[in-house]
UniProtKB/TrEMBL annotation, chain A:
The active site is a redox-active disulfide bond. NAD(+) binds at residues 216-223, 239, 309. Binds 1 FAD per subunit. Residues 384-492 form the Pyridine nucleotide-disulphide oxidoreductase dimerisation domain. NCBIfam families: lipoamide_DH (TIGR01350). InterPro entries: Class-I_Pyr_Nuc-Dis_Oxidored, FAD/NAD-bd_sf, FAD/NAD-binding_dom, FAD/NAD-linked_Rdtase_dimer_sf, Lipoamide_DH, Pyr_nuc-diS_OxRdtase, Pyr_nucl-diS_OxRdtase_dimer, Pyr_OxRdtase_I_AS. One of its GO terms (cellular component) is mitochondrion. This is Dihydrolipoyl dehydrogenase. Residues 39-365 form the FAD/NAD(P)-binding domain. It holds the Pfam family Pyr_redox_dim.
Length: 507, 48
């Protein structure tokens, strides 16, 4: 391969940020034979795993580059995932409250109307601010940001097709793959991102569909279904399994959550298999079949969201060339130090094992560069929270009751309904409960499952407690401010702790 | 010095209850923290 590399030492070293010194192959370049200094770390992918790894690496004094092909940093999360969906969830909740709930609270508003163009613009502004913010952080930490698509040319070098044209080659002592994931397609249903959309299309619809079908009752489907339902769409969720919420959600929580969403107007067809879809007269007709009885049915919608999952994305990396092993689900195989089967190459985030969560990837991003720097890093996979940002939110950390039963762990359940929480009652927002699972013998807190407004924030203290190996009593003996939702977690701990008599005060 | 031993409120409470010095118990928790389990085991109160 032709490598016309310009030495990085050409420009004075005094300048902190030297994008122009990146080795690149321009067609007009006269081409110096000097090889560039290798980077200590090159991170492939600028998502939550990648950009965090890059920043941390630079902070640890490692010479770092981050390669991203999207044209903006932040990856799926910031561009088409967490951030835009949460912007839509928040504002659709405000809209829905203004339209349906303000009156009960003594606030009369006339003519509540949706301006979808501005609604979407608000979301886009949040996304742009955050992605630009990450770019600023890379700059501040002196990470070289390379815009382009990387592929392996050897275990220590990557060829990058630059977005602006041309290509470059990056030499690295360590390569961290953080290439993320993509939408799992539904066999036989073609996504056009207009009528049949993935999550990417669902955050950018041009009008509120009258009828919307969501294929997949997991987190993404429920969140996007909530958004469009609040904006006026009649939403039906079709799920093959018999419960919603996806992997890890506690069974009791999932049942209760479904009831709450039904009360809000969402419909569910569980245990239902989608066969195929046809587009006709501006509508989509979905052929479905009851998984048990085999009874067939056709349902129609203006818009269908395919949200059956995400799969690792490793396209174009040329993994075969350097012998990086991928499992049958497309995940890059790693050991407990994130090493792939190619020496010097590590992998983190959605592209490898574990739950596909931004904060999980971030933790791994830090751990992986600490391992490169000092030989040890650590992620506690027992203490990674999961959050569904609907209203109310669902959040949990630790195993479900079903998991514990399977593992044969003896546990106690402590439960506290929000109906009995002062703040929830004050706000007239008291749907949900806190449920804690506590090891019977030692009182160790194993899991916290919450349905509540702000559950994603409420669960944080339980994550800390579990990471500290705290007992339910520990938590119950810590003072919670009054009136706050947090009191409900404290009271659930009282109810779950034998040492506290297994009783809450207010219930 | 007992005060230097990392332990949570429940652990200190349990130690008080059984007149144990928390510093005399070897911890298995994070950074050598004495967990409630450690105290129970030390006091022979847990079935393994």
């Amino acid at each position: 391969m032709l490598r016309n590399l310009v030495s990085r030492n050409v420009t004075p070293a005094a300048r902190a940020w030297q994008p122009s010194t990146l080795p690149r192959l321009a067609t007009s370049s006269r081409g110096l034979a000097t090889a560039a200094d290798p980077y200590d770390v090159v991170v492939v992918g600028g998502g939550p795993g990648g950009y965090v790894a890059a920043i941390k690496a630079a902070q640890l004094g490692l010479k770092t580059a981050c390669v991203e092909k999207r044209g903006s940093l932040g990856g799926t999360c910031l561009n088409v995932g967490c951030i835009p969906s949460k912007a839509l969830l928040h504002n659709s909740e405000l809209y829905h409250a203004a339209k349906h709930d303000f009156k009960n609270r003594g606030i009369d508003v006339k003519d509540v109307n949706l301006d979808l163009t501005r609604f979407m613009k608000f979301k886009d502004t949040s996304v742009t601010q955050l992605t630009k913010g990450v770019e600023g952080l890379l700059k501040k930490n002196k990470v070289d940001y390379v815009k382009g698509t990387a592929s392996f040319s050897s275990p220590t070098s990557l060829n990058v097709q630059l977005l602006e044209g041309g290509e470059t080659s990056l030499e690295a002592k360590n390569i961290v793959l953080a290439t993320g994931s993509e939408v799992t397609p539904f066999p036989g249903i073609e996504i056009d991102e207009e009528q049949i959309v993935s999550s990417t299309g669902a955050i950018a619809l041009k009008k509120v569909p009258e009828k919307m079908i969501v294929i997949g009752g997991g987190v993404i489907g429920l969140e996007m279904g909530s958004v469009w339902s609040r904006l006026g769409a009649e939403v039906t969720v079709v799920e093959f399994l018999t419960a919603i919420g996806g992997a890890g959600m506690d069974g009791e929580v999932a049942t209760s959550f479904k009831k709450i969403l039904e009360k809000q107007g969402m419909k569910f067809k569980l245990g239902t298999k989608v066969i195929d879809a046809e587009k006709k007269d501006g509508k989509v007709f979905l052929n479905v079949e009851d998984a048990k009885s085999g009874k067939k049915e056709q349902i129609d919608a203006d818009c269908v969201l395919v949200a059956i999952g995400r799969r690792p994305y490793t396209k174009g990396l040329n993994l075969e060339a350097v012998g990086i092993e991928v499992d049958q689900r497309g995940r890059i195989v790693v050991d407990d130090a994130y090493n792939t089967t190619c020496k010097g190459v590590k992998c983190i985030g959605d592209a490898t094992f574990g739950p596909m969560l931004a904060h999980k990837a971030e933790e791994e991003g830090i751990a992986v560069v600490e391992m490169i720097k000092s030989g040890h890093g650590h992620v506690n996979y027992e203490a990674i929270p999961a959050v569904v940002y609907t209203h109310p939110e669902v959040a949990w950390v630790g195993p479900s009751e079903e998991d514990l039963k399977k593992q044969g762990v003896e546990y106690r359940v402590g439960k506290f309904p929000l109906m009995a929480n002062s703040r929830a009652k004050t706000n007239q927002d008291s749907e949900g409960f806190v449920k804690v699972l506590v090891e019977k013998n030692t009182d160790t807190l194993l899991a916290t499952h919450i349905i509540a407004t702000g559950a994603g924030e409420l669960v944080a203290s339980s994550v800390l407690a579990i990471d500290y190996k705290a007992s339910a009593e520990d938590y119950a003996r810590v003072c919670a401010a009054h009136p706050t939702m947090m009191e409900s977690v404290k009271e659930a701990m009282m109810a779950g702790s034998n040492a506290m008599g297994g009783k809450a005060i207010h219930f | 010095e007992a005060i230097q031993t990392l332990a949570t409120p429940a652990v200190r409470r349990l130690c008080h209850e059984h007149s144990l010095n928390v510093a005399s118990i070897s911890g298995t928790g994070k950074d050598g923290r004495v967990t409630k389990e450690d105290v129970l085991r030390h006091a022979g109160l847990t079935v393994d």
